[in-house]
Specification:
alpha/beta; 4-stranded mixed sheet; 14 helices; 24 strands; 26% strand; binds uridine-diphosphate-2(N-acetylglucosaminyl) butyric acid
């Protein structure tokens, strides 16, 4: 077991390069199953969720070759198994994309994918994924901890999503790409990683229109082309985490390799609380030279305020002047980090979907745990701006989703080390 030790009190300063988006990468990797051929994916974040997804593909018979730290060549010509075991799929959430990709690839085979795991953020149903697969003609059964899926053939259909779901939108796209006819996904999610997965598939010859809007149309094609390369979009949430780290530490940093329009809503909030953001094309400078002021946050699907930045924003508001209110509208258990933050002197009370944060002047170092991936990142931000030393345990959550977070922060002047527990 490892822990992170942070000596607080340094203002971040310098440049940081943002990695490829985790939540696009974990869908693009299983999507290579649809090619039945070869493809090179660049700008993959080298994090544990990506590594496990690659290992599962190997287990199914794909050849997976790391060409460098962030580039992988996938050869999915010889898939021998359509069964992804529970001991692998339960390690992360996005293993559910294997269902859509395997269904899309093969017909009349029993597909078995162990149920997904991932951060404990409350109930994480997959009913909308299943509803979509069934609409395309698949038989789905959930039993013994796995999803068993089978279809003679998939035929495009109109699908209305009862709730806006990132995972279900992407999964239905994966299943529909090679289906017969047209699939319409109504009330689709619009996150940047959905657009990226659609761009990836279209670069291989798929016909997906409207990704990034409420209605996505997938016109089925007979096959996808082999032999091309694709570079994953920069990670919106990693970029947002660094922007908030700059504000929390009253630093001044430049983010390279990011897409500023994916961060419009965070930029507006940072300016509202007294920080500064300057967008110079594909670089963003963020700085803050005074104590931030209160604001209210309501998480919502894109382009709303991302739930995945709620905890990091919670840290900034915990040291802001005045009282802020956060409404978490996506996940029911995303305030677990507040109990840890209160150990550092924050004054946060929660009830249901609402957290009330009375800003304090300073946090003080303590031993705190990562409650989930973004909760863990928020503990690091808290440690950066706290007085004294902070120890963060359960850091495996953080390593799942951020590439070299400690190294990148240290290059900005932070004092963080990973130590054995
Ligand atoms: N939902 C349903 N039924 C479904 C699917 C979702 O009711 O079939 C509900 C969920 O319970 C939740 C809401 O719909 O209340 C949104 O869930 P969504 O399906 O959008 O979430 P997800 O696909 O499981 C992805 C990200 C999460 C991120 C959410 C919301 C991946 C691998 N994960 O999860 O990322 O919080 O979208 O943006 O893309 C993270 O990176 O830390 C993380 C948790």
């Amino acid at each position: 077991m490892e822990k992170l030790v942070i000596q607080g009190g340094t203002k971040l300063h310098g440049e940081v390069t943002i990695s490829g988006a985790k939540n696009a990468a974990v869908a693009i990797i299983p999507a290579t199953l649809l090619i039945n051929g070869v493809c090179t994916v660049e700008n993959l974040p080298n994090i544990s969720d990506v590594q496990i997804q690659c290992k599962i593909l190997e287990k199914l018979g794909a050849k997976v070759e790391w060409l460098d730290n962030n580039t992988v060549r996938f050869d999915t010509s010889n898939i021998e198994s359509y069964k992804a075991p529970l001991d692998m799929t339960s390690k992360f959430r996005s293993s559910y994309y294997l269902i859509g990709a395997l269904l899309g690839r093969c017909h009349n085979q029993d597909i078995e994918v162990g149920l997904p795991g991932g951060c404990k953020l409350g109930a994480r149903p997959i009913d909308q994924h299943i509803k979509g697969f069934e609409a395309l003609g698949a038989n789905i059964e959930v039993a013994n901890g796995k999803v068993i899926a089978r279809a003679e053939k998939l035929v495009g259909a109109p699908i209305y999503m009862d709730t806006v779901s990132v995972g279900a939108t992407i999964n239905i796209m994966l299943a529909a790409v090679l289906a017969e006819g047209t699939t319409t996904i109504d009330n689709a999610a619009k996150e940047p990683h959905i657009v990226d997965v659609a761009n990836f598939l279209n670069s291989l010859g798929a016909d997906i229109r409207g990704a990034g809007t409420d209605i996505i149309k997938v016109n089925g094609v007979k096959s996808l082309k082999s032999g091309s390369s694709y570079s994953v979009v920069p990670d919106q949430i990693e970029a947002g985490t660094f922007m908030l780290a700059a504000v929390a530490s009253q630093g001044d940093i430049i983010l390279k390799n990011c897409v500023s329009e994916h961060l419009d809503c965070l930029t507006a909030k940072i300016i509202e609380i007294g920080g500064h953001v300057e967008d110079t094309g594909d670089e963003i400078r963020v700085w803050c030279n005074k104590r931030p002021t209160k604001t209210n946050i309501k998480t919502a699907p894109y382009p709303g305020f991302p739930t995945d930045l709620q905890a990091q924003m919670g840290v900034v508001l915990s040291i802001a002047e005045g009282t802020s209110v956060i409404s978490e509208n996506i996940w029911e258990s995303r305030f677990q980090y507040t109990y840890e933050l209160n150990k550092m002197g924050a004054k946060i009370t929660t009830e249901g979907k609402t957290a009330v944060i009375k800003g304090v002047r300073k946090l003080s170092g303590a031993t705190v745990k990562s409650t989930d991936l973004r909760g863990g990142a928020s503990m690091i931000l808290a440690g950066l701006c706290a007085k004294g030393m902070t120890t963060v345990t359960n850091i495996e959550y953080i390593l799942r989703g951020y590439e070299n977070l400690d190294k990148k922060l240290n290059e900005l002047g932070a004092k963080i080390s990973i130590q054995k527990e």
